[in-house]
Amino acid sequence: MHNAMIGFTVHTANAQSTQRVGRALAEQLSPGDCVALHGDLGAGKTCFVRGMAMGLGCEANLVSSPTFTLMHRYAGNICDLVHVDAYRLRHADELRDAGIDTSDTTAICAVEWPMRVPGVVPIKHLQVHIEAIGENDRMIVIANDGSTLTTRVAAALAPKPCPSCEVPCEIFGAHWPFCSSRCRDIDLGRWLDGRYQISRPLEERDLDEG
Ligand code: ADP
Ligand code: MG
Fold it and tell me: Whose CA is nearest to atom 24 of ligand 1?
């Protein structure tokens, strides 16, 4: 669903796909932007933030739940990431007392459990809702407030044509970049037939993810 007013939805079938969504979103952000992550325990909020860290050139494998520390700051090549978990917060003042600023203009901020405490995120922020709809299936809804930022994010996460059948398919889906396992097999068949060829020797970066 791509609804211009309410938001747009991306489905993922594994944690890696959720990370990819976080990464693609982070690539659209600028210093000072804040992302509020809604969703139950285990929905995939921290997983999404790990993807954001990848997108900002941070050491993504360091990203863990900051539940017991309130906040982690990760240095990134593109921008630093401030990761806040408001689950245990009783009052927004606790953040300020700890020297944490969710509208820090030198970093991109991601806040889990933003509804726990009023005022924990700046008024202008991007809302991401993650819901588990199966053991590994997640529905990620990004609210669209009509801003240029959400419009750009919507474009970055819009369905893309399947390389086999060219029908638009949801980004980072289970068979991405194909729409289905059938289209993936069709494409593999074209390689095996010799209809596709590699025009230059493979390089290490060809094998990199994303
Ligand atoms: P939260 O921060 O919302 O409490 P986490 O990101 O810490 O959640 O944990 C999500 C858990 O769900 C992880 O163990 C992850 O491997 C698992 N998982 C399974 N499928 C998905 C998916 N599609 N997206 C994100 N996480 C998933
Ligand atoms: Mg978490």
Answer: 15
Asked whether residue 123 carries a pLDDT value surpassing 50, the answer given is yes
Decide whether any atom of ligand 1 lies within 6 Å of the 46 Cβ.
Answer: yes
Cβ pair 177, 162 in contact under 8 A: yes
Q: At what angle do helices 15-26 and 45-55 cross, to 10 degrees?
A: 50
pLDDT tens digit sequence for 76-102:
999 999 999 998 888 888 888 888 888
Q: Which fold has domain 6-158?
A: Rossmann fold (3.40.50)
Ramachandran angles phi, psi of 183, nearest 5°: -65, -35
Of 6 and 176, more confident? 176
- Residue whose Cα lies nearest atom 7 of ligand 1: it is 46
**What is the rounded average pLDDT for all residues in the chain?**
89
Domain boundaries, the chain: 6-158, 168-209
User: Distance between CA 86 and CA 32 in Å, rounded?
Assistant: 19
Residue range 20-57, pLDDT digits in tens: 999 999 999 999 999 999 999 999 999 999 999 999 99
Per-residue CA distances from 89 to 8, 47, 83, 116, 210 (Å): 30, 21, 14, 7, 36
Whole-number Å distance between alpha carbons of 147 and 29: 12
In this structure, are residues 71 and 65 in contact, taking their beta carbons and an 8 Å threshold?
A: no
Which tokens hold the place of 41? 């325990």
